[in-house]
UniProtKB/TrEMBL annotation:
Belongs to the glycosyl hydrolase 65 family. Pfam families: Glyco_hydro_65m. Residues 1-16 form the signal peptide. This is Protein-glucosylgalactosylhydroxylysine glucosidase. The keyword Transport does not apply. Keywords: Glycosidase, Hydrolase, Signal. Residues 310-534 form the Glycoside hydrolase family 65 central catalytic domain. It comes from Rotaria magnacalcarata.
Length: 739
């Protein structure tokens, strides 16, 4: 698609406009968009989204939550033709293209001596069905002549994924009505998915200012939903019932509420603040709003490439959900926005029937979650990667660990008892109990790769094998240490909450949980990634065994923790994803190796984030998947759990900030941390840290206490706690559940 920026050559180097005033940390501006040769480089463009719909700015497609097309391994996000990719045929003397992450808005400004064009594009937080383009034409010259601004329109009403018909076209709206072409799985999806698109007729005749006019506002509304009546109501609301400025102000107000609900503030390092703000924005804009007037809809997962991408198999992971959701993205959301963390878990719960069927398919019990999931919860891993799909069983433990952390942060008994949370915990534990075998030689339980001769798929045989998070360990291995750890935690969790769920864990399960075999090298005092791992001559893709230290917080002494970090760091390939270095950052901060931690912290984002819009790439200084919010989530974990020194366990919230702040920061502030109904602000400087309690849930039946140096006191509203850095504060419920 050609754009109206004037090119001096076939390739334009992007130059970011620097603005060190108030908006510098939230507004990302360039005067030239990223190009690849003679076409706009959409991979480096930002997106607007609200968890229901999203689109890369000026791209050809819009995507909707849960709308997938394709059979099993060919399933991908269904492409809805964009209604927002038209261009002004205008030769500006100045131009700017800005993403404002504080308001979730992209603004295009084109200007010459005579006229100024300002277009704002946003995905409404007020009503999530809505995508809005708000255009203001302003006269700058005093000549008073009629101004006509032509446009290039590329209206598409067809899709390779959706059988669309133009059901209506009039002066008020165009209606596209259609269904996806293929179901994902005949067992769990009975019919194709419907979608309805109402949109304002596109400006084929351009824009006008009459001689007497100084400005004119145009509003272009797109409303998309699976229910026609709802899509129509939202379109009429935005088009007829509200002034365009009210639609805009309501959207901005709701985004302001998001940031006031929870955010990270950096004092003294604007560039780091920009990194944090953009990372949060790209994750939050693929999640449901904290507050909206739209009806609640089932959330269908968080893909590594966000809601705005994934329209082709093999492109940005096709919109599929992986372990990335629970392991890398979820932790950065949980303590600030626990309701959104619950939405993420609701996706797995909603697809529990598929998980139960997946376990039965392989001869096991309980719920076994697929490696790649989309609409139905069946495994949608593409051909060519079926071994990974079969072997990466740790994802079931990753989901259970995310549930563990949600319970730890909220103590949400209702979720456990009546919202299938207890079922999720118990049935994932049941899977692991059925998956292990006992070794008479080791006197331990193991999780092994084994051949199932009675199943007749996957080239006439299925290996129920094990692959650790390190995918370079293909084809399969025995006793992945990470897999065994999450399996143990899964069973332990089911037992821990049994007094609430009333689901009794058999003693045999507990024997398994506390007697799983962990590969370990006694000579070097180092965990082995799997049985037979060579600590000297093996190259790994990404963080694996080091994840035992964090996020799992598996018990070990400092020597083993340090050895894990030091041995695996040089074994990790340079082209691996950013999250590895975030985990090394956290580990070395734990050990007070501050220089090494700082080195890894910068490595975790500097070569992965691309200007001008801070787009995350999967591969350093290259591409891979974009916008890779998995990397953004890992980076935020390094800030929150690394430099924030926060640890969350089933028993307590611990705060122990390390004795150095990141980069040039003078102060680090976590606004709106949520723990068991309390709202906390954590402020860290170079000498001390402070906890301000600015809210307590009076309906929470569990009182909280705080402990410092073996003394404990009730936690009450409106108090400030201040302590030296590198000392530990514990906040916990007065009574532990199921102690």
């Amino acid at each position: 698609m050609l754009f109206l920026v004037i090119l001096s050559s076939l390739f334009v180097v992007v130059r970011t406009v620097q603005n060190h005033q108030t908006g510098f940390t939230t507004i990302f501006t360039t005067n030239r968009l990223p190009w690849n040769g003679s076409v706009l480089d959409y991979r480096m463009m930002p997106y607007v989204g609200n968890g229901h719909v999203a689109t890369v700015v000026f791209s050809d497609f819009i995507y909707m939550n849960g709308l997938y097309n394709g059979d099993n391994g060919t399933s991908h996000r269904a492409r809805i033709p964009s209604t927002l990719n038209w261009q002004f045929l205008f030769h500006p003397s100045t131009s700017s293209f800005s993403l404002n992450v504080s308001s979730g808005t992209f603004t295009e400004i084109l200007e010459n001596d005579e006229v100024r064009i300002e277009q704002r594009i946003f995905a409404s937080q007020e009503y999530t069905e809505l995508l809005i383009s708000h255009v203001v034409i302003t006269r700058l010259a005093l000549n008073g002549r009629k101004i006509v601004l032509p446009t290039r329109i590329n209206e598409q009403v067809t899709s390779d994924d959706i059988d669309f018909v133009v059901a209506a076209r009039n002066e008020q709206y165009v209606l596209l009505s259609g269904k996806t072409r293929q179901v994902e799985n005949n067992q769990f999806q009975l019919e194709q998915l419907p979608v309805f698109v109402y949109y304002t007729p596109l400006p084929v005749n351009g824009f006008e200012l009459d001689p007497q006019e100084t400005s004119r506002t145009y509003l272009f509304v797109t409303s998309i939903d699976s229910e026609q009546e709802r899509a129509k109501r939202r379109f009429e609301y935005a088009s007829n019932e509200r002034h365009s400025d009210q639609i805009w102000s309501s959207h901005v107000s709701l985004w302001n509420d998001v940031w006031s609900n929870g955010r990270v503030e950096i004092v003294g390092d604007d560039e780091l603040q920009r990194q944090i703000n953009s990372a949060f924005y790209y994750i939050l804009s693929s999640l449901p709003p904290l507050s909206t007037r739209s009806e609640h809809k089932q959330f269908y997962g968080l893909s590594p490439g966000s809601l705005s991408r994934g329209g082709l198999v093999g492109e940005d992971y096709a919109g599929h959900s992986f372990w990335d959701t629970e392991t890398w993205i979820y932790p950065s959301i949980l303590l600030f926005y626990p309701n959104l963390a619950k939405e993420m878990l609701s996706y797995r719960i909603a697809l529990r029937d598929s998980a139960a069927d997946n376990a039965r398919l392989f001869g096991y019990e309980g719920w076994r979650y697929p490696w790649e999931s989309a609409r139905t919860g069946v495994d949608v891993t593409p051909d060519g990667y079926l071994d990974i799909a079969t072997y990466q069983q740790h994802i079931t433990g990753d989901i259970s660990f995310a549930a563990r952390q949600y319970i730890a942060a909220t103590g949400d008994r209702k979720w456990l008892m009546s919202e299938y949370g207890g079922d999720l915990v118990y049935e994932t534990a049941r899977f692991w109990a059925s998956r292990v075998v006992y070794s008479n030689e080791k006197k331990k339980y193991e999780i092994l790769s084994k051949f199932l001769s009675d199943l007749n798929t996957f080239s006439h045989r299925i290996y129920t094998a094990v692959l650790p998070p390190d995918e370079d360990a293909r084809p399969f291995k025995n006793n992945s240490v990470f897999t065994n750890a999450v399996a143990s935690y899964s069973i332990q969790l089911a037992h821990r909450v049994s007094c609430i769920t009333k689901k009794v864990v058999p003693q045999h399960w507990l024997d398994i949980a506390f007697n799983l075999y962990f590969p370990f090298d006694n000579a070097t005092q180092t965990h082995l990634e799997y049985d037979g791992f060579d600590l000297k001559n093996t190259i790994i893709k990404q963080a694996d065994a080091v994840l035992l230290g964090f996020p799992l917080m598996w018990p070990m002494n400092k020597e083993v923790r340090r050895n894990d970090l030091l041995f695996y760091e040089p074994l990790t390939r340079a082209s691996g994803p950013a999250m590895t270095w975030s985990m090394h950052t956290i580990g070395f901060l734990e050990l007070n190796d501050l220089d090494k931690a700082q080195q890894f912290f910068r490595r975790a984002y500097e070569t992965y984030v691309q200007p001008p819009y801070n787009i995350w790439t999967e591969i350093p200084e290259s591409l891979g998947a974009v916008n890779f919010i998995t990397g953004a989530g890992g980076f935020l974990q390094a800030v929150i759990f690394g430099y924030g020194g926060i640890r969350l366990t089933l028993d307590q919230l611990e705060v122990m900030p390390p004795p150095r702040l990141p980069n040039q920061a003078e102060k680090l502030i976590f606004h709106g941390l949520k723990y068991h109904g309390s709202i906390l602000d954590l402020t860290i400087d170079n000498q001390n840290y402070h906890i301000d309690v600015r809210g307590m849930d009076n309906n929470n039946s569990m009182s909280l206490v705080y402990e410092y140096e073996q003394e404990h006191f009730p936690l009450t509203n409106n108090i400030r706690l201040s302590y030296p850095i590198n000392t530990r504060l514990v906040i916990r419920p007065l009574m532990h559940f199921c102690a």
